[in-house]
């Protein structure tokens, strides 16, 4: 509490004791004036009488309440800290689900972050090993990684796509993955059949339409380079 000396207007810092009584006896550390202040507000009450002993001051000159008042203060008990309880309304950290990992993997796959997408799909399958859509997307991711590295596991990927199709014949993603795989293996006819199945399920699938067109171009180029076509072309040249 801050107290102002009524004689010299010097400001004093006073620790109010926990004792009874309306006033506190103060002695100014500058002019040694003795006076009483209100215990609650710190306002000047009245001057000290000559018969009362002067109040003590500490080492830095701040006024200190009378020792008799401190001794009269009742002991205060310090309550132990109450353990904090978590209320039901407080938000709790949500658990990551298989669907969260699957959706995160799809976003990574669209962004071209293939290794991260592969890991996210793998984590999803650890939580839900029978999730067919995640197995298909992981196989597509592995196929794209294999194309980039030149090492494609054709047998394993074909089994994954085929098992997904057996479980759900209307799985357009599995049909598209299997068609892409057949195209990589150099079988345009089988690839076109798979892409046609995609269009059966999803008639507006532009990727499947473009894939069919690309496989037809590759098929035409392969037929032109076949031995039969070469022999026919050779006969025509000789006849000419």
Identify the notable features of this structure and list them briefly.
single chain; mainly alpha; Serine Threonine Protein Phosphatase 5, Tetratricopeptide repeat; 5 strands
Your description of this structure?
51% of the residues lie in helices and 8% in strands. 24% of the residues are buried. The model is unreliable at 57-62 and 66-73 (pLDDT under 50). It has helices spanning 67-71, 98-110, 114-127, 132-149, 154-167, 172-184, 188-201, 206-224, 227-239; strands spanning 2-4, 11-13, 23-27, 34-38, 44-47. By secondary structure, the chain is mostly helical. The protein folds into three domains: 2-71, no CATH class; 96-152, Serine Threonine Protein Phosphatase 5, Tetratricopeptide repeat, CATH 1.25.40; 154-240, Serine Threonine Protein Phosphatase 5, Tetratricopeptide repeat (Alpha Horseshoe). It has a three-stranded antiparallel β-sheet with strand order 3-4-5, with no helix packed on it. A two-stranded antiparallel sheet has the order 1-2. The chain has nine helices and five strands; from the N terminus they run E-E-E-E-E-H-H-H-H-H-H-H-H-H. The longest helix is centred in the last third of the chain and has 19 residues, at 206-224.
């Amino acid at each position: 509490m801050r107290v102002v000396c009524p004689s010299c207007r010097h400001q004093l810092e006073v620790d109010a004791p926990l004792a009874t009584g309306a006033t506190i006896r103060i002695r100014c550390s500058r002019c040694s004036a003795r006076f009483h202040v209100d215990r609650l507000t710190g306002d000047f009450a009245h001057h000290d009488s000559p018969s009362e002993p002067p109040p003590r001051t500490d080492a830095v000159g701040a006024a200190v309440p009378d020792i008799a008042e401190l001794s009269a203060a009742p002991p205060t008990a310090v309550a132990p800290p109450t353990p904090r309880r978590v209320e039901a309304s407080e938000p709790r950290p949500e658990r990551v689900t298989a669907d969260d990992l699957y959706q995160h993997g799809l976003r990574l796959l669209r962004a071209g972050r293939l290794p991260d997408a592969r890991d996210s799909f793998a984590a999803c399958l650890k939580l839900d090993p029978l999730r067919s859509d995640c197995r298909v997307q992981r196989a597509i991711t592995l196929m794209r990684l294999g194309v980039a590295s030149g090492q494609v596991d054709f047998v394993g990927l074909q089994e994954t796509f085929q098992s997904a199709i057996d479980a759900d014949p209307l799985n357009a993603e599995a049909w598209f993955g299997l068609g892409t795989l057949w195209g990589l293996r150099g079988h345009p006819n089988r690839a076109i059949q798979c892409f046609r199945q995609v269009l059966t399920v999803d008639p507006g699938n532009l990727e499947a339409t473009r894939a069919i067109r690309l496989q037809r171009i590759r098929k035409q180029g392969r037929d032109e380079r076949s031995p039969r076509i070469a022999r026919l072309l050779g006969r025509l040249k000789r006849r000419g």
